[in-house]
Design brief:
Helix content is about 40%, strand content about 20%. It is built from 15 helices and 22 strands. The N and C termini lie far apart (about 55 Å).
Length: about 450
Amino acid sequence: MLQKVAAFIVKNNLLVKSKPVIVALSGGADSVALFDILQKLEYECVVAHCNFQLRGDESQRDENFVRELCRQNNVTLFVQHFETEQFAKDNKISIEMAARQLRYQWFEELLLQMDAQAIAVAHHKDDNIETFLLNIIRGTGLKGLRGISVKNDKIVRPLLSVNRSDIENYIKVNNLNFVTDSTNFENKFKRNRIRNEILPLLQTLNPSAKDTILEEINVFNGIYDIYKKTIENIKNQIVIYENDIVKILIDKLLEQQQTAIILFEILKEFGFNISQTNQIFDSLNSISGKTFYSKTHKLIKDREFMIIKEKELNKNDDEYIIDLDYNEILNPIHLKFEKIINYSDLILKTSSNIIQIDYNKIKFPLKIRRWKNGDWFYPFGMKTRQKLSDFFINNKLSIFEKNNTWLLISGDKIVWVIGLRADNRFKINKKTKKILEITLF
């Protein structure tokens, strides 16, 4: 297995030996095997461990195990604690998605900090199969049927060449210790149900079901490459770029087969979802002048063209002061302020447009202003600071979205990247006596 992984790394140009690689090490069998293999292949390893604080003593046990393993191997270790449940509630996402977002955001920070070449994660063939089935259930389109990428920017997956049984055998032969996540056996998570129930059922219908699915993933990868090239060729025929305006030739578009699909592939770049695309498609034979909006762009249906441009930016860079007695402001944005005196009266809100913060941690007057280069804060759920510019990149904000972002400031500290993320320093806890709830309309 060692040589198989080594050949896979070289074939796919995943790693070099001249720069450090950060190994995501949970303490489970897969990540322990990955760490051991990269060590034996003489890559310069640095370890990152995420403590999501979801399993009580078991989470601490995993962290302690990883600390001891790194000590024994004399390897640098970075540990990050996340308030995962709160982050999931605040962003109205699942625990699994919250953990994923927090993990990969931190990984990107570590890459810059360590000047590392990549983050190595321990996904293997069985993970690829599970992801494929999950994507079918979710409805991710052709792209999702490609499974897990061997390399996604700086994330590399050296174990995608082996399956779970290969790893289990490697662990046994090399007498490696590891910890077991008890939640792997709980079928309340979709991935676990696929692993523990659906795949075994499929194997009763076809004992080679796993191999068949992996073959299909390879086929879909090839189909997707052809699909992408075809879409690009069509776009070159029907899309015109003129400075800050994009025009789609309606007649040329209607000449194509699968017109709605092609239109979606063009418009998703500008923030339009499938539902909006269907509405735009239905309007193609209607009168001119109909306008549609995504979060970042507007589209006007003209006689010959669909015209797309960014929404107009608010150029006002003034600083706005909010005094202690304000209950509501309308300019530059609409915010409402409500004081909650008793912690017992608090009803937790999970919308990204609402924050609930410790009243005694803020200083009046508050201020609202645009973001500036050099601004930084502590994103909610994290204990390390981050530049806003990096936060915007990690969250894939467009130029329009970045320039249209407002900050709520207390003293010289960012309280809220408004509508996006609160600062962790102002969070409420059991010692909080008074709460300030702020709502964005």
